[in-house]
Amino acid sequence: METSLQHTERTYLRLILWSLGSLIIFVLLCWGGFRFYRHWQEGHLLRRAAAVLSGGDLKTASLNARRVLQLNPANTDAMRLLADIAEKGGERNAVDWLRKVVQARPDSVDDALALARSAVRVKDFASAAKTLEGLGERARDKPEFYATSARLAEARKDLAAAESHWAKAVDLAPEKSGHRLQLAIIRLGLVDPAKRQSALGALEELRADPKQRTAALRRLVLDGLEHGKDSQRALALAKELEDHPDAGFGDRILYLELLRQ
User: Fold this and answer.
1) Which of 77, 187, 239, 259 has its CA 20 to 30 A from that of 252?
2) What are phi and psi of 249, to 5 degrees?
3) Rounded to an integer, what distance in angstroms lies between the CA atom of residue 85 and that of residue 79?
């Protein structure tokens, strides 16, 4: 009898342990499945938000991105997307979203630079300067650090500092024609004849760059008019600009004005 009772107890114990083990495994599977579904849902909503944003639907993009933050308040991709939406909509709160990203990822240089650029756009120069200063030596080898510093200096009407920063950006990334264009534009406004001549040469080179051609032509035309240079050359450059597919309405008006002179 005693042996049979012990056997029965062991059987019940095994059943209890098996049931508990099965229950734990079931709970873990449910929790894992729930977490997987939440992660998938976040990714799905973010992809949908990005897709509708590319089509210009800011409202739907914002709703999807905010839904992601309801699921996961720490999702920095959703915060970045909301900042992008705010900038496209001309709203100032892009800075607030990017500040939250930087708070969540304090070691990210790229996010800090994005915050500084956004702050410059909305003329929050104090925040931009504080963010750039806070990067310290971590960003000194990044051309975008100097490009952002240059934009801040330009906004503050400090052309000497802007030129210095653009020059450093070009030194670090000479392949970036946009930086070379900005350096040339800044140097056109300086009184140093050598730097002005260097700027004009750079703009002539950028006429061959499909991405910068219209901007380079525009600056050459305007510089020619401002300094009373060869009117026929200015007219020829304006005609070249007016014929370009990317020319704007203002470029066409400029050409017509030159024709009347």
Assistant:
1) 187
2) -60, -40
3) 10
Question: CB within 8 A of 3, min separation 6: which ones?
Answer: none
Residue 161: which of 140, 131, 186, 144 has the closest Cα?
186
CA 242 to chain CA mean position, Å = 30
Q: What is the DSSP letter of 171?
A: H
- Residue 34 CA to chain centroid, in angstroms? 33
Q: Domain locations in the chain?
A: 157-206, 207-261
User: What residue has token string 């970036």?
Assistant: 176
Strands (E), the chain: none
The phi, psi pair for 216, rounded to 5°, reads: -65, -45
Query: Going by C-beta distance under 8 Å and a sequence separation of 6 or more, which residues neighbour residue 207?
Result: 213, 216, 217, 220
Record the pTM. 0.77
Query: Counting every residue, how long is the chain?
Result: 261
Q: Which residues contact 117 (CB under 8 A, 6 or more apart)?
A: 128, 148, 151
Average pLDDT over residues 73-82: 93
- What is the residue whose two structure tokens read 């061959």? 208
How does the average pLDDT of the chain come out, rounded?
86
Q: Count CA atoms within 13 Å of residue 28 on its CB side.
A: 6
Q: How many CA atoms lie within 13 A of 41 on its CB side?
A: 13
Cα–Cα dist 249/241, whole Å = 11
CA dihedral 240, 243, 248, 252 (to 10 degrees): 80
Question: What's residue 132's pLDDT?
Answer: 95
Would you state the structure tokens that stand for residue 124, as one six-digit string? 């929050």
Q: What does the block give as tokens for 17?
A: 């342990």
